[in-house]
Amino acid sequence: MFFTILALHVLGAAIWTGGHLILAFTVLPRALRAGDPRILTDFEAGFERIGIPALLVQVASGLWLALQIAPQWRDWFGFADAVSGAIGLKLVFLALTAGFAGIARFGLIPRLSAKTLSPMAWLIRGVTVLAVGFALAGVFIQTGGF
């Protein structure tokens, strides 16, 4: 069971992180050069169909894995040891990702234009950094450190 849940978690991470790296390094620069927000919205429309389910799988599987590794959820926020600290860090990254998503969904995307591409670009870069941080923290947990 552990292997299956971990495999689903890693596949979700590959989709989420890979999608955001593609967005940040190929799609976003093209949209900024062209001044065309449709380039972003077209990518997002396709990516959301697989990216959001991947993120949901990551959240569910991540919570299950965290309980297997550190059964006392209170320890996740105590940062008493490296593994608990990495779990807590991943939860902080999740909260920040949700916050950025809320800003994008309810603030920027409804009025996305050539003029608002720059703030959207910063949000995309932030979520991408967080996605990479998620992946690195997961590697840290599974390998026990550096």
Description:
This protein is mostly helical and 146 residues long. The protein has one domain. It contains four helices and no strands. It has helices at residues 2-34, 37-69, 82-108, 117-143. The relative contact order is 0.15.
Quick overview of this protein structure:
By secondary structure, the chain is mainly alpha-helical. It has one domain. It has four helices and no strands.
Q: What is the number of beta strands?
A: 0
Structural Rg = 16 Å
- Low-confidence parts, pLDDT < 50 over ≥5 residues? none
* Shape assignment: elongated
Distinct helical segment count: 4
The proportion of residues in beta strands is under 5%
Return the structural class. Answer: mainly alpha
Portion of residues in helices? over 70%
Gap between N and C termini, in Å? 26 Å
The major β-sheet equals:
none
- The total number of structural domains is 1
Q: Mean pLDDT, rounded to whole units?
A: 93
Order of helices and strands: HHHH
List the helices and strands and how they pair.
Elements: H1 2-34, H2 37-69, H3 82-108, H4 117-143
Keywords, separated by commas or semicolons:
single chain; 146 residues; mainly alpha; 82% helix; elongated
